[in-house]
Amino acid sequence: MDERDWTMLHALYEAKNITKTAEKLCISQPALTYRLQRLEKEFGVTLVYTGRKGVEFTAQGEHLVRYSEDMLLQLRKTKEYLLNMEGKVRGTLRLGVSSMFAGYKLPSILKNFHNEYPDVDFNVTTGWSAEVINSVYKHDVHVGIVRGDYNWPEEKHLLMEEPLFVVSDREISLKDLPNLPRINYNTDTSLKLLIEDWWKEMYSQPPSIMMEVDKMETCKKMTLNGLGYAILPGILLDENEKLFKINLTSKSGIPILRRTWIIYRKKSLEVSVVKAFVDFLKRIK
Question: What does the sequence similarity comment in the record state about its family (predicted)?
Fold first, then answer.
């Protein structure tokens, strides 16, 4: 059993599908099946079987997956340690990043970091902030960039704060919001609660939701076309767009802010590329 087998088992356990796993690993389905059968013969047990939901692992198969994941983690740490011994900032930086931040801020950050450290490669995974936190917890990534105030037991650093806005294609008044059509969008729990708490402080009646869309970008386009107002974070808004904006503040005038955090494990700073990236982010204003 070697690194290829560890990687195959890990990928198959995540996908639960032979076809998708073979595509991800860039091998044929027969080759993947052959490797599985060879492992089963080597250990003398059945590792997987095909059920109604796709590939399902036996108890022995799940144990071997956990072993494979441990071995992949140890191999990665060993490679990082050996690179550290050279005293240079090089290797692969593994990042988990909130999708919104990845779309609007991350490209320029990585470009500038790569200009300083050209020997660094990037492995980036995007998703909801809760998924990013889980990736850092499981050692799948070195550093997470999350939006919203989440509990994280280890190291964290405030990367940026941004205001929230009521936006519309025309001038509107805050006192009229409960009676105006609002466009809602799917987002993470922390932003939903931030907006809901503000609304409950300001109004005694619920908003008039006219439309529910899947993404903030779609919501903004609907707003630009005069279909309703929305409450959006500043990261999404361009100064050149013809939108009327009102900063969200509490009744006492305190701005309602959306925070973005860097999270990581303290021990990860022993890896030179991680320390260089964290220090680089801390310099960003």
Answer: Belongs to the LysR transcriptional regulatory family.
71 Cβ contact partners less than 8 Å away, ≥ 6 residues apart: 3, 6
The per-residue b/e assignment along 81-105, b for 16 or more CB within 10 angstroms, e otherwise, is eebbeeeebbbebbbbbbbbbbeeb
Residue indicated by tokens 């690179």: 83
What is the rounded CA–CA span in Å between residue 90 and residue 78? Answer: 14
Both tokens of 46, joined, read: 């059945």
Are the CB atoms for 142 and 95 separated by under 8 Å?
yes
Range of the domain at 234: 162-257
Q: Judge residue 132's burial from the number of C-beta atoms within 10 Å of its C-beta, 0-12 exposed, 13-18 middle, 19 or more buried.
A: buried
In this prediction the pTM is 0.75
- Give the whole-number percent of the chain exceeding pLDDT 70: 98
Residue with tokens 């990261």: 235
Which CATH number covers residue 176? 3.40.190.290
Using DSSP, state whether 208 is helix, strand or coil: strand
The pLDDT tens digits for 61-118 are 999 998 988 888 788 777 777 776 566 788 889 999 999 999 999 999 999 999 999 9
Residue 263 phi, psi (nearest 5): -125, 145
My answer on whether 152 and 263 are in the same domain is yes
